[in-house]
Amino acid sequence: MADKPIVCCVKWGTKYPALYVNRLRSMVRRHLASPHEFVCLTDDPGGLDPDIQPIALPDAGYSGWWNKISLFRGDLFPPGRTLLYFDVDVVIVGPLDFMLDGNADFTIARAFSKNLGFNSSVMRLRAGALTYVYERFAEDAENVTTSVRFAGDQNWIQAQVPDAALFPPDRIVSYKKDLNAHIFLSAKKLGLDFLKAPHFMTVSPPPGASIVVFHGKPDPEDVMDAPYGPWKRAPFIKEHWR
What we know:
Elements: E1 6-11, H1 18-31, E2 37-42, E3 53-56, E4 82-86, E5 91-92, E6 106-110, E7 118-126, H2 131-139, H3 141-145, H4 153-160, E8 165-166, E9 172-174, H5 175-178, E10 211-213, H6 220-223, H7 236-240
Parallel strand pairs: 1-2, 1-4, 2-3, 6-8, 9-10
Antiparallel strand pairs: 4-7, 5-10, 6-7
């Protein structure tokens, strides 16, 4: 099927091993009913499962999350194809076909802070539809990536596509913000961030959630079996992150 979605992720550097990509691929296989392809943009394809198609990172000068901007290139994927993007450290816990609803050229997750904005951990893009997002970035990449205004790729994306469609907020949730994961939310303000969450305190995704985003620390492996400092244990990870 020429129109089946292409599921994408990016693995750059050594922060995340191939295991993260392989587990992401396994979760997508279980939760996305629609036939699809799976590709990984990476500088090191070693260790990837055989059914993951590696694509060499097309912009060698970009680092970290800035490689996501390459998804907006006009020459990377066949024009018109639907791209579903996931960060490699998300945990998928429910059906994903909701991501294919609607006709928007670009859809992204909401920000998890009180500020209005985007979170680029989960995106849908029609290949070739918003090439200006990449082209404008490529023209001035050095200045953009060092600008205080653009702390990350999602800030750049929001500046270029401020009216982007958003995924349903109850489907994509944050471990830190939506699962009551911190033992004491005001700990930092009160100088009590040294507190350690007890092992018996655990968290689970809210009903109806499909994707749990792990932004910053901790990573899924940090709280799968034990607390991580003041962050509570999340035993649901062991069931789904495989």
